[in-house]
Amino acid sequence: MIGNRRAKTGGSIIRRLLPALAFATISLPTVAETWRFALIGDTPYNSHERGELPKMLSAIADSKVDAIVHIGDFKSGSSPCSDEVFTDRFQLFDSSRAPFFFVPGDNEWTDCERLSNGGYDPQERLAKLRSLFWSKNQSLGRTTLTLERQPGAYPEHARFRLGPTLFVTFNLPGGNNNWGMTDIPRADYAARHPATIAWLKENFALARRENMRSLVLLFQANPGFKHHTQGLAHRAYREFLDTLRDETVGFQGQVVAVHGDTHMNRIDQPMRDQTGRLLSNFVRVETFGSPFMGWTTGIIDSDSPASIRFENHPWPARHE
Q1: How far apart are CA 235 and CA 185, in angstroms?
Q2: How many C-alpha atoms does 292 have within 13 Å on its Cβ side?
Q3: Beta strands in 3-97 (DSSP E)
Q4: How is residue 30 annotated by DSSP?
Q5: What distance in Å separates the CA atoms of residue 274 and residue 101, rounded to the nearest whole number?
Q6: How far is it, in rounded angstroms, from Cα 37 to Cα 101?
Q7: 50, 139, 142, 192: least surrounded by Cβ within 10 Å?
Q8: SS3 helix, strand, coil % of the chain, rounded to 5?
Q9: How far is the C-alpha of 86 from the C-alpha of 75, rounded, in Å?
Q10: DSSP characters over 209-250
């Protein structure tokens, strides 16, 4: 459940000290550990990206990450939501050499009612996703990590741990969170939204109770941080962002929100408290998105667990 830990100091130091062990007891330095995770999303949208993605996933695995997370939209918003596409993506993700997690986006369920997508029932498509991607308490991939799912109707809400960091997934899609076109939200939103808020609060409480030093929240939608700060929050995301802000204020460690949706790779700090003060312990990461491929690596150090570092890796790799 904790992932593949790697020592920052280790064997070479011990080998140099072995001769001295015959004469004295030596106090070795504490061995620090690191964990790495990769973030991708909004891909593949076309045949070219589908051909490149296996090569990119192999490169990510070669970088020795402990987990890969796809933040949603594994197809374009104008392509069919067919069983064949869903099965293809499942097989691709499940072939990952690193543990793999998939978070749902609007392109693979809420948008499937479009004629260009095949005119599917979105709830039927979401049920199909659940049967493929979230039917077990294990990640996808050739090697797996154990996870916990929110009890009830939303198994796509899950959590797992890497060292001192708690990772939490949400079904929070773009396209206004499936609110619909009227002032009254759709039945799906009305049922799913309370479960989403409860899951958010529960995991902040868990992180505080277990003294987790950082919390990574994973969802597909760009919920509109800038508009929220300006008091113009989108109604389908307003309570989620209000709760996220208030919980972040009450959390001593680092909070990272990862999303896709608007295809603008960035790492910034857009969250402010109700007085307008920057929340310095909050970081937003938006993944690369079609037509630009790549991944963002998060690096957790056990000697500085409340400060996850991030590195961007465009694909194909750019060689100097």
Answers
A1: 10
A2: 17
A3: 6-7, 33-40, 67-70
A4: P
A5: 33
A6: 11
A7: 142
A8: 30, 25, 45
A9: 9
A10: HTT-SEEEEE-SS---HHHHHTT---TTTHHHHHHHHHHHHT
Instruction: Count the residues in the chain.
Output: 320
Q: What does the pLDDT look like over 109-127, one tens digit per residue?
A: 999 999 999 999 999 999 9
CA distance 208 to 305: 14
For residue 317, give every residue at least 6 positions away whose Cβ sits within 8 Å of its Cβ, in sequence order, or none: 59
Is the bond preceding residue 104 a cis peptide, omega within 30 degrees?
no
- CB 139 within 8 Å of CB 99: yes
d(CA 147, CA 48): 32
Whole-prediction pTM value? Answer: 0.90
283-318 pLDDT, tens digit each? 999 999 999 999 999 999 988 756 899 999 999 987
**Angle, in degrees to the nearest 10, between helices 187-209 and 238-249:** 10
Token pair for 54:
């296996």
Classify 101 in phi/psi space as left (phi over 0), alpha (psi -120 to 50) or beta: beta
CA–CA distance, 219 with 159 (Å, rounded to integer): 12
Average per-residue pLDDT for the chain? 91
Under 8 Å CB-to-CB from 249, ≥6 apart: which residues?
273, 279
Q: Match 């773009």 to its residue by tokens.
A: 174
Q: What angle do CA 255, 134, 224 make, to 5 degrees?
A: 40
Close Cβ partners of 228 (under 8 Å, ≥ 6 residues apart): 237, 238, 241, 242, 245
